[in-house]
Amino acid sequence: MGIFSRMGDIINSNLNSMIDKAENPEKIARLIIQEMEDTLVEVRTDAARNIAERKELARKAEAYKERAAEWAKKAEIALNKDREDLARGALQAKQQAENMSEVVLSEIDVLDEAVAKADADLSKLQTKLDEARAKHKALMMRGTVAKSQIKMRTAMTDNRVGDALARYERMERKVDELEAHVEAFDLGAGESLESQFAELEANDAIDAELEALKASLNKSVKKVTKMASK
User: Fold this and answer.
1) 93 CB contacts (<8 Å, ≥6 apart)?
2) Which of 30, 88, 191, 207 has a 20 to 30 A CA-CA distance from 150?
3) Lowest mean pLDDT among 1-10, 41-50, 129-138
4) 3 state DSSP class of 82
5) Rounded distance, CA 132 to CA 30, Å?
6) What is the DSSP letter of 5?
């Protein structure tokens, strides 16, 4: 016997409440889904059997009706032949066939009712199954997220992570020290090659400007002297 003893227990149960209150909701949801799927298969199998039986009974009922009609014709023939005894026997056989037809029709009504009830129950059970599947999927997603968060937080609080970061900082400090030693070698070493070339270029510019200034002054002196001689 599973979680539910009969389909009515499933249909009338509050699945969400049952799952939420369980110690292992994901496991309970999985078991409920399995129970529902098994129940659906059983109910559909019974319904299919009832439908097949109804078809067979319908054929029997039709056969009894045809037999009753045949006995009715035979009764007429017997009366036409002045055989009232045969006509009476034919009418009795006709009545028996009609009675059997009614019995079969009543059995068909019972099967129709059973199939209709199974159809309604299957619809309700399918709705419950969809709810359980949705709940199970949500639980699985929540579980996956929770596990990921636990894994991340465990990694963040792991001493090995802190040790690794500390070793990285120590390595970074050693690299800074090495770079500082390299820079220290350049201190007091005089002008660099680049600075010397820059100084030469600056001197050339000053010399050129100086020569231009001298030429301008000489030109001005010559002009004044020429004007004075006149």
Assistant:
1) 67, 71
2) 30
3) 1-10
4) coil
5) 8
6) S
- Largest Cα separation within the chain, whole Å, is 184
22: left (phi over 0), alpha (psi -120 to 50) or beta: beta
Both structure tokens of 147: 């596990």
Supply the mean pLDDT for the chain. Answer: 77
**What phi and psi, each to the nearest 5 degrees, are found at residue 13?**
-85, 155
Structural contact between residues 52 and 44, judged by C-beta atoms closer than 8 angstroms: no
Could you count the other beta carbons within 10 Å of the beta carbon of residue 218?
10
- C-alpha span between 85 and 176 (Å, rounded): 129
Q: Give residue 68's pLDDT.
A: 93
Q: Enter the tokens of residue 93.
A: 């056989």
Pairwise CA distance, residues 3 & 189, whole Å: 89
CA 66 – CA 97 distance, rounded (Å): 9
The pLDDT tens digits for 33-67 are 888 888 888 888 888 999 999 999 999 999 999 99
Tokens of 44: 């559909």
Which residue, 130, 108, 106, 115, is CA-closest to 47?
115
Tokens of 121: 């129950």
User: What stretches of the chain show up as alpha helix (H) in DSSP?
Assistant: 7-12, 15-21, 25-80, 84-157, 159-186, 193-229
Length of the chain: 230
Hey, what's the torsion of the CAs at 179, 183, 184, 189, to 10 degrees? 160
Distance CA 132, CA 66 (A): 51
Give residue for tokens 């159809």.
119
